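Fig. S4 source data, part A: sequence.
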Amino acid sequence: MPCVAVVADDAGSTVVDAGQSPAHAHLVQLAMAEAGLPAACRLVYTHHHWDHTWGACAWEVEEIVGHEAGATLLSAEADRPWSHAYLQQEMAANPRLGPSFKARARSMNGWEDFAVRPPTRTFTDRLVLPGGIEVRHVGGNHAPDSTVVAVPDSGVLLLGDCFYPPPYHLREPGPAGEEIDLPQLTALVAEGFDWYVDSHSPPWRPPSS
C-alpha cells in the first residue's frame, strides 16, 4: 500500500493522498480515530495514479486539492466503466497494463459505491494551505502532475512518487527505463528538510542529518 500522510490541525486534518481503495481509506480513518486526530477536512493528491486516488470516494472532505494536469487525467478516468470485467478486458488488449490492473483488481472488494474523484480545487505552480502546508508542482518522469507537500513546522517533505520511473506500461525497454530521476531527488534533498517521505518506503533522513 502507498503512504497516506495526515497533517493534524484543530480545524481539521489535511490528508495527503487518499489511499488505493475505499478499504484502504477506512483503515487510515480508523487509525486517525484511534490516535484522537481531528477528522479530515481536505485531501491533497500528490499525483493522479490510482493507488493515490482510488480511496477518495470514502472520504467526506470539504475539498480535494490537486494539480490541474491531474484534474484533466482524473476526469477522464472517472468516465471509465471500472469493474473486474473491464480490467480484464483492458489487460487483454494491452498486456503491459497487467501489473497495474491486477493490483487494482486485488485492492477492490466491490464496485457498487466506487467513483474516481477529480480535484475540486486545482493549482498550476504552488499553493499554500491553512497551517502553512505548501503544495508544489514538480512534475517529472513518473507523472506530469507530480506534487510535493511541505510541512515546514514539522520539517517534513512529502514526495509522493515524484522521483520514481514511469509506470511499467509507459517505460522504455531496458534498464534505463527503470532509473529514478536522480537530479529531481538530489534537488529536493538539498532543500534541507529533516524528514523525507516518499510513497513506498519508510520515512528517511538525508545522509547528512
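Fig. S4 source data, part B ends here. The first helix runs from residue 22 to 35.
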